[in-house]
Amino acid sequence: MTDVFWAGVAIACLLYFVKWKTDPLNSIPTVGGSSLPLLSFLGAFNFLVNSKRLLQEGYKKYYGSVFKVPLLEQWILIVSGPKMVEELRKRPDDELSFYAGVEDSMQIRYTFGPESNDDPYHVDIIKEKLTRSVPAILPDVIDELYNAVPQHIPAKSDEWLEIQVMPTMQQIVARASNRVFVGLPVCRDQEFLDLAIKFTIDIVKDKTLVKLAPQFLKPLVGRLSNHVRSTLYKAIPHLKPVIDERRRFMEKYGDDWPDKPNDMLQWIMDIARTRDFSDEAIARRIMLINFAAIHTSSNTVSHALYHLAERPDYLKPLREEIESIIAEEGWTKNAMGRMWKLDSFMKESQRYNGIGLGSLTRKALKDVTLHDGTFIPRGSIVMAASDATHHDDSNYADADVFDPFRFSRMREAEGESTKHQFVNTTLDYIAFGHGKHACPGRFFAANELKSLLAFIILNYDLKLGGDGSRPPNMYFGLAVVPAPKGKVLFKKREVEA
Fold this sequence. Notes:
Blueprint: H1 2-21, H2 39-61, E1 66-70, E2 75-79, H3 82-90, E3 96-97, H4 98-106, H5 108-111, H6 115-118, H7 121-132, H8 134-152, E4 161-164, H9 165-181, H10 190-212, H11 218-224, H12 227-253, H13 264-272, H14 279-310, H15 315-329, H16 333-338, H17 340-353, E5 359-364, E6 368-369, E7 375-376, E8 381-384, H18 386-390, H19 406-411, H20 442-459, E9 460-463, E10 474-476, E11 479-481, E12 487-492
Parallel strand pairs: 2-8
Antiparallel strand pairs: 1-2, 3-5, 4-12, 5-8, 6-7, 9-12, 10-11
Helix pairs in contact: 7-13, 8-9, 8-20, 9-10, 9-14, 10-11, 10-12, 10-14, 12-14, 13-14, 14-17, 14-20
């Protein structure tokens, strides 16, 4: 019996070795460790804690081609250089799929149900309705900032108040965003806002467990790791009264009525009435949109505040620009568009820090051969090295230096006035992705975040405590997080905003 057991082990090991030996990914160079069986797990742990350095190393060593890095559950193929980024952008979705890449990354099908993957109509709403509506809805965002910012940064003019940046920005961004997503009074319902913020953490918890499970166990693990569903079900009672009220109006008036709400909830309900019109289905889309909006936006503005607090001398030129334009235009989308220095500050902060270390994530739905001859087998995850691209001196002079007005200077050149805006993507600026799948919510987010930062700049002085050094970012795998416990000192200015 013992001999049979060990024979079985030997056969299993042999089959595993043969599978590894014939894996086409072996032809792609590895960064961060060995691709040998079992040793690749050591490389995965190395990548978790040294990801930024390893991606920089691979970018320089294999520039213009492809290398791979290990995660605990899979290999990630990394491309670099403008030709490779352009190829990711141009490859059709039936070869290198954006949606399949997102599904693989988030595992929403197993943690939250397949509906939002199979029919992602909320993405079309963001891309079309939300973007077109920015001029009309921005006044509501501004109104919410006037209420939320003083509440969460209750600084006085005669003393400095220390504020923990990340959780504060999450609360403010959640309120301002949900003013547009669900409207008053739900956007000021603290329990709902806490659930919306918690939802992202729940997705990360659940998808991590699901990704580690073998394919046949993913549905079971997704049902058992139910943080996401639990938070959704807790959020529904907060949304139900307003959903019921909207349904009554829709039944009474049809497609239009006086003072029909112009917000995300209504846009979702207008489409959902011919699909799944249940409370859960509607709430599901609202929570997913919150997931996309709150943490990326709060991280982005936290990065910017750390830079601003580290160098308070940047406040003067920014204030001068903001005050003069607000005096002429008020708090409008046109005003935000004229604030070149503020726009540059946000874009440079995002270039310098990043939303993540990679972007343009795709999943190969069939075997693909890239222009340099690299063979990408079906099922592989491919992405571009965004952080390394943004820190390449051949793309940006002194790329490792934070230069707040880098892009506003670039816009002053002949014919360059629109090319270098915060929302614009290029082959060397890929924080939002690039091409038709670039972040659809970036136009709303840019105006929201510029309004928030402008409001803070006009109404507060700020600085860092201690030695005045910017709190360092945290890197964990492909994630970039501004210092979670970092603090900034605020003091109220005696001005009319």
